[in-house]
Amino acid sequence: MPDFCAAYGCSNEQLFTSLATFLIFLRFPKDSSLKREWELAVKREGFVATERSLLCSEHFKADDFDRTGQIVRLRHGVKPSVFNFPSHLQKVCVLFG
Ligand SMILES: [Zn+2]
């Protein structure tokens, strides 16, 4: 079974990663407080990330990634901030912009 992005309204799945030019799937952080911040950023009611929960790179800003090395890494302590929320959630989204 393919792994799907946990973000609201995002249908990206890991199956297609190899086809996408820049789509990385990120596991939720092991650090519990940062993990909680990611869970809240996803804004899915009652959402609790598991070890298999993923977010695709579309939910992060370009600046959130460290591309200086051969492997593109997410900078330390970064939270996902780019989401396509339905209109009733958009106001809250401003807080993350
Ligand atoms: Zn996604």
UniProtKB/TrEMBL annotation:
Residues 1-83 form the THAP-type domain. Keywords: DNA-binding, Metal-binding, Zinc, Zinc-finger. GO terms for molecular function: DNA binding; zinc ion binding. InterPro entries: THAP2, THAP_Znf, THAP_Znf_sf. It comes from the Eukaryota. Gene3D superfamilies: THAP domain. Pfam families: THAP (PF05485). This is THAP-type domain-containing protein.
